[in-house]
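Q: what sequence does this backbone want?
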């Protein structure tokens, strides 16, 4: 049990909102997951996100820290990485955390639920997302420093945050991300169950091409990006020609539900593929 989880169980979580180390202050407990807890904080006169390791499942947290710490990982569509802390305070059981840029408008998913926009703004959001994913997928070299190409492997609207301008996206949550260096054929892929509704059919059916793993995982990212683009388009008022925009829904929410099972998604996408094959001209 992590320090924060123990404090909540003991009814003392309020104390952590006053926890400080140097220029970092924890302000608000925003989300607690299997491998980490996410806090809003204040660091060097800026609001930040603080991701704190849960001791029960360190691997995904450590993988995300490794991705953020790679050389040349700077792009407007990625959160800025500030630093990581191995030991927060001798008197407080928070062992490891890292600090990244805060998105003032929250996740893309929550932003879409609360807002509609015109064609111009939709295109700016599209452009920001596409540029961010293209940057991840591309290897960059600067003398001895190398940023490998990276497959995100868990791209979804809840893993994207929106900056204060309401147009610039930041792709985040790299717990499942896989880096690839040119000239190498090996990679470690997380077996953590990802956002099921965004999984490409070949992953659901376990038919992904392992001989070309880098290409296959990047293609799966593009599939997820297409679903996110659909989510964004449903909130563009210019596409409704004078009628009210529809209520926000997740991909396949109409066909299934808010939290579909792995087998439900697999069956739905298999049926969709069969329908495409039937309609395909000879």
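A:
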């Amino acid at each position: 049990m992590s320090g924060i989880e123990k404090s909540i169980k003991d009814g003392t979580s309020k104390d952590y909102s006053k926890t400080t180390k140097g220029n970092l202050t924890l302000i608000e407990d925003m989300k607690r997951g299997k491998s980490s807890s996410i806090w809003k904080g204040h660091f060097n006169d800026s609001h930040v996100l603080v991701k704190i390791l849960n001791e029960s499942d360190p691997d995904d947290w450590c993988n995300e820290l490794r991705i953020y710490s790679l050389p040349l990982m700077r792009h407007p569509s990625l959160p800025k990485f500030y630093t990581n802390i191995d030991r927060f305070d001798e008197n407080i059981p928070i062992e490891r955390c890292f600090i990244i840029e805060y998105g003032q408008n929250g996740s893309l998913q929550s932003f879409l639920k609360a807002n509609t926009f015109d064609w111009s703004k939709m295109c700016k959001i599209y452009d920001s997302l596409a540029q961010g994913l293209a940057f991840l997928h591309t290897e960059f070299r600067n003398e001895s420093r190398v940023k490998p190409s990276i497959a995100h492997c868990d791209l979804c609207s809840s893993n994207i945050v929106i900056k204060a301008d309401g147009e610039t996206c930041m792709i985040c949550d790299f717990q499942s991300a896989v880096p690839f260096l040119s000239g190498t054929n090996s990679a470690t892929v997380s077996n953590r169950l990802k956002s099921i509704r965004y999984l490409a059919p070949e992953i659901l059916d376990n038919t992904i091409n392992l001989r070309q793993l880098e290409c296959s995982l990047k293609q799966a990212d593009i599939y997820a990006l297409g679903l996110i683009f659909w989510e964004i388009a449903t909130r563009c008022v210019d596409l409704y020609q004078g009628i009210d925009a529809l209520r926000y829904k997740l991909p396949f929410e109409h066909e299934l539900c808010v939290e579909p099972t792995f087998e439900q998604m697999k069956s739905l996408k298999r049926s969709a593929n069969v329908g495409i094959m039937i309609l395909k001209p000879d």
